[in-house]
Write a structure and sequence with these properties.
It is a single chain. The chain is an all-alpha fold and 194 residues long. It has two domains: 1-52, Arc Repressor Mutant, subunit A (Orthogonal Bundle); 54-187, Tetracycline Repressor, domain 2 (Orthogonal Bundle). The chain has nine helices and no strands. Helix 5 (83-99) packs parallel to helix 8 (149-169), helix 7 (121-143) crosses helix 8 (149-169) and helix 8 runs antiparallel to helix 9 (172-187).
Length: 194
């Protein structure tokens, strides 16, 4: 770990908060370290003591985004609602974000576009997050005794990507409605009539 990475100093928090806002709003490669340093109000030496390179900062930024999403899902799961309702709540929350002001898509998809090499350490954080999300879907479908867990997991993952991209490019309310309907059909399949 970079020096100071385990510490949550106020300067480190300011760097992460500033970088996160700028990376999400303008793109990772478009934002330079000098700008982050200036807007976070830290010395260059302080920045580099926490993040020896920009890619270290990007990895921590994405890991923090993943941690927040996991915590939000855990909170929904802790409410005790059935697994199918958790799935619907996850997609509803994503749809709400997509309709919100300043929505610029998925931080992980955006980062993957800027870091096309699948072996790059930044892409590894993206891959880990996506693996967690697929695992979450699989676990919830399994707990709900869904009849086709693997295919439905893959389909829901694609729908999630479509939701976050479509919400940025198209009418987010329409995309949200379409995805809500599709997810509901997938997680609550109607029995085949004899």
């Amino acid at each position: 770990l970079p020096a100071g990475a385990g510490q949550e100093s106020p300067a480190r928090r300011r760097i992460l908060r500033t970088a996160g806002l700028l990376f999400y709003a303008e793109g990772i490669r478009a934002v330079g370290i000098d700008r982050i340093i200036a807007e976070a109000g830290v010395a260059k030496a302080t920045f580099y003591s926490h993040f020896p390179a920009k890619d270290d900062l990007v990895r921590v930024y994405l890991a923090e985004q993943s941690r927040r999403q996991r915590a939000a899902v855990h909170e929904v799961q802790a409410s005790g609602i059935p697994p199918t309702e958790v799935l619907l709540a996850v997609f509803e929350a994503i749809g709400e974000l997509g309709c919100g002001p300043g929505f610029r898509g998925c931080a992980f998809i955006n980062a993957a576009v800027e870091y096309p090499d699948p072996g790059h350490p930044v892409r590894q954080v993206v891959t880990e997050h996506r693996s967690w999300f697929r695992g979450l879907l699989r676990d919830l479908l399994t707990a709900a005794a869904h009849p086709d867990v693997e295919r439905t997991t893959a389909t829901l993952a694609v729908l999630r990507d479509g939701l976050v991209v479509g919400s940025q490019l198209d009418d987010p309310e329409e995309v949200r409605s379409l995805v809500r309907e599709a997810v509901t059909r997938l997680v609550r399949p109607t029995p085949i009539q004899p």
